[in-house]
Amino acid sequence: MDLHSILIDAGMIAFAILLVYVVVKILAKPIKALVKFLIHAATGILVFYIVNYIGNRFFGFYMDPTNLRLVIAGIGGVPGVILMVLYQLLF
CA spacing 20 to 30 A to 75: which of 25, 44, 48, 85? Predict the structure, then answer.
């Protein structure tokens, strides 16, 4: 192997590393936001089912898990579930 081919190989490796770094930097924020949203949604839906279980078992309180309520729990998270419980209790 001569020096010219070694330099070309080293340049290609450096370019590949730089390309991977740039792609990871570009995709890091959207992936981080997506993971945060999914955790938030899962927490909201889990709290919805916990509230239904505890409410039904001890207080006779139950909310039907309709599509709209699950979407509110998923998007709104814990505050969304609290608002649904308050709405259910008041109206």
Answer: 25
